[in-house]
Each structure stands twice: as C-alpha cells, then as structure tokens.
Amino acid sequence: MFVCKSITFYKSSHRKNWSNSWTVLHGGILTFHKDPKTPAGASVRNKTSKFPEFTVELKGATINRATKDKSSKKNVLELKSRSGVEYLIQYDTESIITDWYKIITDTIRQLYKNVLPSSCSLASRHPSSSSTPEADQKKVRTKLKKFLLKRPTLQSVKDKGYIRENVFGCHLHNLCIQEKTRVPSFVEKCIRAVEKRGLEIDGLYRVSGNLAVIQKLRFKADHEDLDLEEGNWDIHVITGALKLFFRELQEPLFPYSLFNDFINGIKIPDYYSKIAHMRNLVRSLPPPNRNTMEALFSHLRKVIQHGDENRMSVQNVAIVFGPTLLKPEVETANIAAYMVFQNQIVEFLLNEFESIFHM
C-alpha cells in the first residue's frame, strides 16, 4: 500500500478547481479521500476510509508528466483512466511526486502483464460486450467496500500477536496475557537490576533519575528487548522508570473497584482484624495484580532492610509508592486525606507482608 497525505488533486470535469486529498494506492485501485484538515473533509473525518471521493482503476490507465498546457503548477502528473477520465495529481515536493510516478507506473505495467491473457480470452468469447465508465466505477466501489468490510479489527490483530501493546500505559492484565507471564517482564527486570547493584545506593526510589534518559529507557521497553543488568543504565533511571510504569497503568496496581475497601480496611481499629481484612482484599485481587504486588512488595522489603545505607525507611518507601499504586478513579476534595491513607496502606502491607501474602 502506498499512501500520501494532502496531495493536490484535479479531475477533468465541469469542476475547474484543485482540491487537497488523502490518496491511497492499494492493489490496482487508486482512491482519493477528502482531506480531513479542510472544512469540506472535517464532517466526514470518520468516514473517509469507507467513502472515497473518487476511485481510479489503474488497469488500462496511463500516466505521464503533465505538460505546461495542462497546468502551470510544478510537479504535476497526468493520469488518464481506461474510460478516458483525466486526473491531474500534484505535490510540492518533487521527490514524493517522483515516487508516486514510479509506483503508479509499475502498478499499471504489472496489471497489464497480469490481465492481458484473460482480457484477450474474454474479448474473443464476448466480442460485442462492453462496459460503461459508470459500470466500471460501480464495480470498483463494490470491490473496495467488500475489501474494507473484510479488514480485521484492531483488537483481533492484537489478539493474534501482529501488533504488540506498549509496556507503558497498558492494562496489567493485557500485558501479562501478551507476555504469558505472571508478573510483567519489565517489572522483573527492574527488580533484578536494582537488587543486583543498587540496594545500598543513597535515596533509592526517592532520588529522581534523569527524565530524558528515563524516557529513552521507556521507548526501548516499548519497542525492543531490554537488558538492564549490563550496567549501562543508572540505578536512579531504572527506579524512576519503574515508578513511571506503575503510575501510567490504565488501572492502578490496587484496582479502582477496591479503593474504598482498602481505605476502610486501614481504618479498622483492631490490629488483627485489620490484617485479616487486608489479607482477604489482597486475595480477591486479579492474579496479575496480586502476583505483581507480591513481587514488588517483596523487593521493597529488601530495600528497607538496607535502610542504613540507602536511608529508605518503611515510611519513606510508603510515601514514594502510596499515591502511585493506590488512587481513586475520580479525584475529589479529599485528596489530602486520601494521601495519608494511601501511605498508611502501603506501609501496613510492607510491615505485615508475611501475614498478608503468605498465610
């Protein structure tokens, strides 16, 4: 498929004006769609893929560089369909219009090679048959409509693995299904890298890494295999990227539906009842959330155990991760009070990790 945006287009007809079009070449069909950036195209922005303004069947067509008597514009191609309709195609950049000229020429030549035998045979069997331009256009539109309706949905393409969902900004459940893992690979890689060479670094998870480098790491995680253990990445960049991963999840690690339950649980006055309540809530989490939470909190406990070196107490870790892992779906005026509870919940789960996750 060869696609170009906003080609200037002119059809030889009663209308004597140029118009900007989105132009698509697929197979032997060239389609012109109204440019959605123009007022005329804005009303059909969501329909251009189904209702082209014009279609040109390249079988039997000819294309040449337009002469000056055809147009005074630069970089103009003259396309004449088999039915005799003329089209002028223009683009300001010469290299782009040259590419169009080559690809259309090659397509016409290939179509000629492919259909010549069948065309001759058809003509010999039906010497008197002929088709009108209107009939040809109707056939093209029908074929194009059938093709568009057969196109798979984006979700079906993702389900088949042809399109990989980004690591950042996705849903935790979808990511684990895509990777066939219990815990996202990116989370496990970050944890391994930090535990291998960063547990004693001062301000771990509290000190911000270079934002530009964090974005670079994010891009690599989304588009290619990532090795964090080779030592090329600063520890604060890795911890910053891990926090960003959890912050940008479509739904937080603590699901929206259980936010109020966790808030109410941390308010329970009896300590052992509070543990039982939190244990039941954690067990009710979707498996990807529960498994990821267990892996993360187990790692954060190791960070806390090195608190003498990295100066990250359980309170400091809770302050860093509370608002990142646990937040309401709709923010209200109680955000300050919520923040206190968010930190307390993370701190409680860290302190009672064994009782909540392993009993």
UniProtKB/TrEMBL annotation:
The keyword Transcription does not apply. PROSITE patterns: PH_DOMAIN, RHOGAP. InterPro entries: PH-like_dom_sf, PH_domain, Rho-GAP, Rho_GTPase_activation_prot, RhoGAP_dom. Gene3D superfamilies: Pleckstrin-homology domain (PH domain)/Phosphotyrosine-binding domain (PTB), Rho GTPase activation protein. Keywords: GTPase activation. Residues 1-109 form the PH domain. It comes from the Eukaryota. Residues 170-357 form the Rho-GAP domain. GO terms for cellular component: cytoplasm. One of its GO terms (molecular function) is GTPase activator activity. CDD domains: RhoGAP_ARHGAP27_15_12_9. SUPFAM superfamilies: GTPase activation domain, GAP, PH domain-like. The keyword Endoplasmic reticulum does not apply. One of its GO terms (biological process) is signal transduction. This is Rho GTPase-activating protein 27-like. The gene is LOC107664591.
